[in-house]
Every structure is written in C-alpha cells, then in structure tokens.
Amino acid sequence: MITEEEIIKEGERIIAEFGEYAREFSLKDSFYHGKFGRCLRFYVKTLEEQEYRLLFHRNGVLCLTNSMHFESFEQFFNSLSPAFRDLFGRKLQDKLQNLVIK
C-alpha cells in the first residue's frame, strides 16, 4: 500500500516534470478515496489561461471540472492545451536533433 509520503513525492515529481507546460501547477491536497485509493488533487492553469482541478489516482487522471478521464498528465495536456503540444514537440525535436548530431 502506498504511503502518504510516497504519493506526495510522486506529486512533486509530476509538478517538476510538467510544471513548465503550465502557467500554474500546484498540489492542493492528498486523501484516500474508497474507489480510487490514495489520491492527489492538483490545480492547473494552462498556458492558455484555462483552469482545471485534477484528481490523480492509480487509474490515471480525472479532470474534476468536466469529468474527463486521462491515463497520464501528458494525455491531459495534449488534449486540453495546444501550447503544451507545441512546447513538447519543440523539446522532443531538440532532443532528437542532439542525438543525431552526436
């Protein structure tokens, strides 16, 4: 069973990984849910200024604002943030280009 400390660390990792693709990305709280188990609730403001409350649990990410379900944060941003796709695409292209140059 995952501990409170472990899930908080996972939340911090998620923010560190995807925070650059959001105007604001913060962990609001952690709690246990009967259906989903240990959960984290995040607040996200996308680069397009859209605001979402997200629930992260063992089955993926649930967008509380409009009840959409995603398997990952990348899927969430790809679905709801065109700016994420642009930044992610550029970052991926740079990484691939660096591999080719080496």
UniProtKB/TrEMBL annotation:
**Where does the GSKIP domain lie?**
66-99
Top-level taxon of the source organism: Eukaryota
Pfam families per the record?
Answer: GSKIP_dom
Q: Which InterPro entries match?
A: GSKIP_dom (IPR007967), GSKIP_dom_sf (IPR023231)
Name listed for the protein in its UniProt record: Oidioi.mRNA.OKI2018_I69.XSR.g16213.t1.cds
* Organism lineage string: Eukaryota, Metazoa, Chordata, Tunicata, Appendicularia
